Amino acid sequence: MASFFMVKVGSESRSLIVIDKLVKKYEYTIAVNGLSLEVKEGELFGLLGPNGAGKTTTINVLCGLLKPTSGSVSVGGYDVTKESFKIKELIGVCPQDTAVYSYLTGRENVELFGNLHTMPKDKIKKNSDELLNKLGLLEDANRRAGRYSGGIRRRLNIAMALVQDPKIVFLDEPTVGMDVQSRHAVWDFLRELKKRRKTIILTTHYMEEAEELCDRVGIIDHGKLIALGSPKQLKDDFRAKNLEEVFINLTGRSIRSE
Amino acid sequence: MNSEVNFQRIIALAKKDIKRIVREPSVLFMIILFPIVLMVAFAMAFGTVGGTQSVTYQIGIVNLNLEGNHQQWSNYFIGNLTNIKILKIQEYQNSETAQSDLMQGKIQAVLVIPENFGQSCSSYWAEANPSLWTNTTLQLYLDSGSMFATQAIPPIIQEALITTISGTQRIPLQIPINIASPSMVASNKFTTFDYMAPGIFTFALIFLIMTISQSFTAERQQGLLRRINITPITSKEIMTSQVLANMIIALIQAILLLAMSLIVGYRPVGNLASFALAFAILIIFSLCCVGFGLITAVVSKSPEVATGISFIFIIPLMFLGTFVTSGLSTIAQAAGKFVPSYYVTDALTSLFLRGAPITSPTILFDTLVVLLYSIIVLMLGIILFKKFGRRG
Fold first, then answer.
1. Taking chain B (392 residues) in consecutive chunks of 10 residues, what is each chunk's mean pLDDT?
2. Does A237 fall in a domain?
3. Which residue of A63, A97, A144 is in closest CB contact with B223?
4. What is the pTM of this model?
5. By the 8 A CB rule, do A148 and A117 touch?
6. Containing domain of residue A76, as a range?
7. Residue A40: which H helix or E strand, with range?
């Protein structure tokens, strides 16, 4: 099924992410089961699915945190099993769970990650200021992150992933738990990233988010890719009003009922 | 895998860890404030701060009047001194040993009874004419550091001397025996706190085990370790930053503790080299604590569990190797030789209390043991943490 959908992927730019028959097994479960897809340079790709579908496991394999059980995965032309160090220089990852140092200020959190990517000091300062401003964090930048509200922490979570201006960005449920206003601010920010030709994989279970932002989406369920294409294309193919209906048509259940 | 070590990353992480110590009240208390409070409390309880002077004076007697027919006079004299309640008499075979104890503050005075003491006393009773008496002089050495001793002891001895010669019934105008002007001797007087202070320095560092294990488990639980692992940082850099941060913390802690101990009256002997070596030993020992902290973090799932498990290491290190040791059984004291904190405290005690030079075999041996122990524990901690501890 996956290879059928892959035919529909545009071929005008090179694939920066190539996943081929990826399987990731845990002791008692198969989290990802034969996933194959490609993401083109500059594409904003949505990985959709209910909780436990295998989205986060796929992201963890892509950024070298987990080793595939079988199959091959390359990011930026590097094999995740052999060249994960090279991949880490290319990617920025915003984890699903907010991971910020509560005793550091927002600015210090962002700058720390700039230093971990060995950026020059002036570049760290410039990028931090820019990100904090764009994500509406400038006012709170010098307060300790431990005192932030949940929404501000999530925006900081994104800023920390992007300070090094990565070529490839993995955003794992970046807007979960955000209020509508914050979510729209993040959407605007992601659109801007896309304009700058960043290659982005966005996992979400908000179908409207995927429809709004993504060039293409892959819907996965129980570790398998069950649909792949642009939101419009999928809606047309399944004669659905939105992606939520696409998912219901495919699985017989709502994505949020999981 | 990149094998290069990048100092920008190491310094950034080390700064982050130092900020944690400074900004998290519980950690700041455990690492800096608690040891300082302990130092002050112990100084007040066992040192000279707020203490009172003893009303008993330990006097060392060197009796040279041991031969001939008149030796009973010196026995009477010593007996009279012994009967005075505020004096504790300790007899010495020779003047050198007695003066050595005086210098160490074990006694407050040394009285030397001359060979012709008995003959002099006998002449007092045998001849009415003072010009026919055998004159002699008692040598008295006093601890110049004890104001009370210098004021009180000479008249007490004078009174005992008069009682010995003339009895309690009459007070003679003149006797053939003088007490020479007391020689003032500067002693090294040690309080209980002086013996405890080196152990307190060691004790303070031991709690790094708890804060390090809490830090790692909290970062792992919050997904921060995982997040850092997605950056190009290497395990070597993460561990180096930990070691660097904790070495700096150990140094700051030692400086603050030393400053506070000096304020509360601690007067360690030793020179600049002694202090430098003491700080170096403490910094080396901090590596051992990092190792124990990592091992604790490996087996702990949360900071709360890490707090509890860290006491598996803290308790023996504390009880067998710091200031607590002195009250333990001989078996427990012997067991102390298996914990590194024992050697840290022993080295610090040798440097600060005994005034041992930094090249003395004891100090070198202690330093070597601490160094080897620290390397082994740190390496073990790093290996275990790399293998089992980084998983989120």
1. 80 94 88 87 71 68 86 90 88 88 80 92 86 90 71 83 78 78 63 83 93 92 92 91 92 91 84 92 95 94 93 92 72 87 91 82 92 96 84 56
2. yes
3. A97
4. 0.74
5. no
6. 2-102+167-257
7. strand A30-40
Ramachandran region of residue B94, left (φ > 0), alpha (ψ -120 to 50) or beta?
beta
Q: The complex's ipTM?
A: 0.86
Contact B6 A93 (CB under 8 A): no
pLDDT digits over A78-127, tens only? 999 999 999 999 999 999 899 999 999 999 999 999 999 999 999 999 99
Question: From CA A124, how far away is CA A121, in angstroms rounded?
Answer: 5
d(CA A212, CA A208): 6
Residues in chain A within 8 Å Cβ distance of B20: 101, 103
Query: Which DSSP string do the residues of A93-137 spell out, in sequence order?
Result: EE-SS----TTSBHHHHHHHHHHHTT--HHHHHHHHHHHHHHTT-
Contact B92, B98 (CB under 8 A): yes
Q: What is the 3-state secondary structure (H, E, C) of A180-199?
A: HHHHHHHHHHHHHHHHCCCE
Residue among B11, B19, B223 minimizing CB distance to A104: B19
Chain A hits for B2, CB-CB cut-off 8 Å, are 85
* Least CB–CB distance from A118: residue in B9, B222, B224: B9
In whole angstroms, how large is the CA radius of gyration of chain B? 30
Residue A17 lies in a domain: yes
CB contact under 8 A, A99 and B13: no
Count residue pairs from A and B with Cβ separation < 8 A. 60
Q: Please tell me whether residue A213 adopts helix, strand or coil conformation.
A: helix
Domain boundary among B118, B153, B185: B185
Interchain proximity B8–A113, CB inside 8 Å: no
| CB within 8 Å of B217: residues ≥ 6 apart | B297, B300, B301, B302, B303, B305, B306
Decide if B2 is inside a domain.
Answer: no
Could you tell me which chain A residue has the CA closest to the CA of B230? A88
